[in-house]
Write a structure and sequence with these properties.
Layout: H1 2-21, H2 25-29
Length: about 30
């Protein structure tokens, strides 16, 4: 369960980083 929480936090951090750079979230996920 802790691993899942960590993965979620990492995904959020990565998405925040992409959006900060101006890259669409859809492109990052896809």
């Amino acid at each position: 369960f802790d691993r899942q929480v960590a993965e979620i936090q990492v995904r959020i951090a990565v998405l925040n980083g992409y959006t900060a750079l101006g890259i669409p979230v859809t492109t990052a996920v896809g």
